[in-house]
Amino acid sequence: MLRNLWFQLHWLLGIAASVVLAIVGVTGALLSFEDDILRALNPGIITVPVPAAAAPLEPASLAARIQASAPGRRITALTVSRAPADAARVTFAPNAGAPGRGETRYVDPYAGAILDPPRGLESFRFIMRLHRWLALDDPGRHIVGAATMALVVLALSGLYLRWPRRPLDWRAWLRVDFKRRGRNLLWDLHAVAGTVAVVPYLVMGLTGLYWSYDWYRGALFDLAGMPRPGGDRPGGPLNAARRGDERPAPLGADAIWKVFRREVPAYGVATLRWPARPGQPYQVGYRLPDAPHDRANNTLVLDPATGAVREHRLYAVLPLGQKLLTSIFALHSGGFFGLAGVVLFMLASLAMPLFAVTGWMLYLDRRARKRAVRAATRPLPAEPAAPSPILIGFAGQSGTAERLAWQSAATLSGAGLAVAVTPLWRLDPSRLGATTRALFIVSTFGDGQPPDRMRGFARGIMRQSLPMSGMSFGLLALGDRSYQRFCGFGRDFESWLRRQGARPLFDRVDVDNSDAGALRHWQGHLGRLADRADLPDWEAPRYQDWRLAERRLGNDGSVGWPCFHIELAPPDPGRVDWQAGDIAEIGPAHGAARVASFLAEAGMDGTVTVTWDGLTCTLADAVARSILPPAARRQAGTAQALADCLQPLPHREYSIASLPQDGRIHLLVRQMHDAQGRSGIGSGWLTREAPVGAGIAVRVRRNAGFHAPGDDRPLLLIGNGTGIAGLRAHLKDRVLKGRPRNWLIFGERNRAHDFHYADDIAAWRAASMIERLDLAFSRDQKARIHVQDRLRDAAAALRAWVEDGAAIYVCGSLEGMAPAVDATLADLLGAAVLERMAAEGLYRRDVY
């Protein structure tokens, strides 16, 4: 709750103050090197030629020449420098009744001539007015002051919100992944730049308030133990002015300067200030040649009559609070920390527009996500006959998890299932314990942390033991692969569910940055849960047009459904890229006979051109790639009207059995049939309807959860049926890399007919690239034998391989084989060991 409060405050202040802070930041950056820029623009004015044999005039002589050049004007201050090329500066008192501090002009220190006003000075004065008051005087001062206070709160709240799980790991603070896109890249830029600039922003903000509010400035003086501006200083000017009426004649500037030079043998820059009223002391402010910054000033206060030293205030011996307060401008500009500080503060100032832009874009994206959630949120039809609806619980940071929860609910509800959607943090132990089927959509914040509103749930309920053995669940984990603990909280949540006895309906689906392929995989699970193969994709894959190059029956004579080896040739052989474990997404189509029959029933000409799914094509092509509506919806008046009611067929997924080096995608596809004997949409298209040479819509989906180990550790591969396809790709990869410690356990019906890729396996076994091979052909003997039985028979070898660091990969049927293998492994190795291996990526499954 506290974190959410800070988040709401952070974005509210950021949106409110962003434009003002952007203006203040840019103008502050322009002012960072004002003196250097003006010096470069004004040779002969701010810097002067140095005569070959002349020395600068003493201040008294210089003042006399200036006075002669400007009769009637009273000099209030004269600044001289030990640098030979630096011009002197004179300040005149303002004319009677005129506001301000008077005019300052540059003076030739050798001739005493008043020089022209410097170029660019008025521009910098306007920039300063923008910086401090938005050029609006008093109203602008209050606006900038409020924005400055907001900057302090933004820096502190941003630091709190950004605090990582491992604060001592610099990568957790400073890593920007420029491979990201959209919101994730914006967040990286916003957060990392804020981390780098947090100290400058705090210093700028806390010092900037000095010029915005009198009460703040007074409080700083009180904290530093210094009299407030305008007050009396013991022995200072006002006290001196209030002494009796008898005042001796004041000393001249020449005498005062001699006293100063006696007291201060070395100086860099010195300013002689004449008293404003008779009886007030002279003051000489100066900076030493090795001063740490240009505001490290010392002050010598001299009696105007005798030249005696009344006070000598040295910057070096000031208490820390007074030293900081007298250096307030140097702190604000970064000069207090040297040249590096000025550069850092300038860059931080220039970054303020970046924060304004990224902050607004993140805010607008957040609004768009909320609108998407509202659009996805719809009343669900009541299902009174369903006593236990499927619970869909979500936990997210930005609204994506909630939107996906409602989309999942709409999909299942549309398929006739009863569902209930709720935030995870609202679930209590009693409701969790009573749930029989649940789908959880859980995002990870940062490097493995729960979303803000799940922190209490994670600290409370997830530390309890709950009776959840009656629950079957599916989990969609949202994350960002650039973090070390990718989908870390989703994994933690799944581990907790398993420890409570809940059983997975299918393997966890990990989503990297809203990857559309992973979300389609989740939709596939929803379709199987609803027992519907025709549920449309939320977002269709962006297919390429591959070619069906080869198709051959692989299990002739089998008692099971026909199984075909399929080879797909790419459109560009030089640009094929996938890894062992990846998935081919196929865009299926209806056969020509089915399309012709449909069009005949609808009374439509298939050659008519229509617009469908953003494409211009014939009506026959649109029908071929669409879910065919029932007869009641076919009576459209025109071909376009019919096309408008067609939805694209959902994609189908198949494990890739080859490597890019093979030049083609190899698939092993079993021809499936429904209760009416009709072949499945995807399998029927690939194994029967599509002619060899036909175009096949293909997209390769990265399946990082089933990628090969990155080292040469032992690899145990377990699979049945067409699951051998994914295992074959891994064996090919291991053979190619010369990694022979491979153990294959494979099961099917009959060895004579169903030993898929038997020649490859025999060759690898003969070449010692398969160290151990266990086969389970269930119908070759009276007693049915399955892969889990072979696994149990090899228990001792299994434990030895695991102790040697082996990884276990399972590919095949979700129903039957995969749960049985999982239970056997847990029994033989221990549930804790299997859970640890899964967490370390050593136990991976690709089951369907």
UniProtKB/TrEMBL annotation:
Record flagged with keyword Cytoplasm = no
Q: Does the keyword Electron transport apply?
A: yes
Q: Which ranges does the record mark as transmembrane?
A: 12-33, 143-163, 184-211, 336-364
- Residues in FAD-binding FR-type domain copies: 541-709
Please list the GO terms describing molecular function.
FMN binding; oxidoreductase activity
Q: Which ranges carry the Flavodoxin-like domain?
A: 390-527
Entry's SUPFAM superfamilies?
Ferredoxin reductase-like, C-terminal NADP-linked domain, Flavoproteins, Riboflavin synthase domain-like
Q: Which UniProt keywords apply?
A: Electron transport, Flavoprotein, FMN, Membrane, Transmembrane, Transmembrane helix, Transport
Q: Name the Pfam families for this protein.
A: Flavodoxin_1, NAD_binding_1, PepSY_TM
Query: Which CDD domains does the record match to this protein?
Result: SiR_like1
- Name the record gives this protein: Flavodoxin
State the organism of origin. Vineibacter terrae
The organism's taxonomy opens as:
Bacteria, Pseudomonadati, Pseudomonadota, Alphaproteobacteria, Hyphomicrobiales
